[in-house]
Amino acid sequence: MDVGVIQRKLGDWECPEVFDTLKLARRLLPGLPSYKLSALVEKYELASGLDGEEKPHRAKYDAIVTARLFVLLAGRRSLEELRDQPAGGGSDEEPALF
């Protein structure tokens, strides 16, 4: 979602390789009751050590915990295996605001 915003604003910007942490989490962490970022943050303690002023749904907080989630997921597979994860799939829901 954020990549599309950046591309619209910067026009000729060339997007680097992108990994969707939601799709990766669904495939690499099967069987979890929820794949919401907040649920993954809680389960894997991804907000540990953050300043108490950092709050969910704020850019800095979300960027940090998402990066930590990616590191967790990337530690389970090689870069080549992450690239080979299917991009689509019937189990992936479309992103929604509500």
TrEMBL record:
One of its GO terms (molecular function) is exonuclease activity. InterPro entries: Ribonucl_H, RNaseH-like_sf, RNaseH_sf. Residues 14-70 form the Exonuclease domain. It holds the Pfam family RNase_T. It comes from the Bacteria. This is DNA polymerase-3 subunit epsilon. It comes from Lentzea jiangxiensis.
